[in-house]
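Run log // design_07
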């Protein structure tokens, strides 16, 4: 397994298998994914900094098996920040705090990053509501977008300032930012009522 040492700001990272094709149909290698994550890091940090992350790893590329991971691995560098969350069973969720965090995650072939709805120090209080519209197979995507904008108008009728975004998959999210004052159960009840 070929390894390369890289310096990202003041962090030294050991990178491996840089020529491995993660997107074989498009000939996109792990090195290109790492480069992409590094270039978007300043922007994405504005959205995920202070948020617990879980992720989907594709060690053999998008055509191979993938697995969902929440827990920070024991072998993670000590500078990878994390927060223990959960009621009965604590899970050490990773917090991406700098550009090197994204390089480290990309080196693990983390192609999907999922953020929690609460940000430090209010991990138990969401700061946005998400309405997730996942269409059935072979459903017209244009129709889902149309429904999302109708839902956004409906939600804004209650005083929220919502926006529509793609999920990265086949669906659409309508997102309404809120103050982190209420717990998840109350927010779920509010979303259901809306």
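design_07 sequence
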């Amino acid at each position: 397994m070929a390894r390369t040492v890289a310096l990202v700001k003041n962090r030294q990272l050991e990178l491996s298998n840089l020529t491995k094709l993660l997107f074989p149909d498009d000939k996109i290698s792990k090195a290109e994914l790492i480069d992409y994550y590094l270039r978007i890091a300043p922007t994405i940090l504005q959205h995920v900094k202070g948020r617990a992350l879980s992720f989907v790893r594709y060690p053999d590329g998008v055509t191979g098996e993938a697995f969902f991971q929440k827990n920070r691995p024991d072998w993670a560098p000590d500078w990878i920040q994390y927060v223990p969350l959960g009621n009965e069973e604590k899970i050490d969720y990773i917090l991406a705090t700098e550009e090197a965090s994204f390089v480290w995650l990309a080196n693990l072939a983390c192609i999907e990053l999922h953020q929690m709805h609460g940000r430090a120090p209010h991990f138990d209080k969401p700061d946005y509501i998400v309405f997730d519209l996942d269409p059935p197979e072979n459903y017209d995507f244009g129709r889902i977008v149309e429904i999302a904008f109708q839902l956004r108008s409906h939600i804004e009728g209650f005083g929220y300032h919502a926006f529509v975004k793609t999920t990265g998959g086949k669906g659409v999210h309508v997102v309404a930012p809120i103050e982190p004052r209420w717990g998840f159960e109350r927010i779920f009840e509010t979303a259901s009522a809306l």
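The chain has a mean pLDDT of 93.
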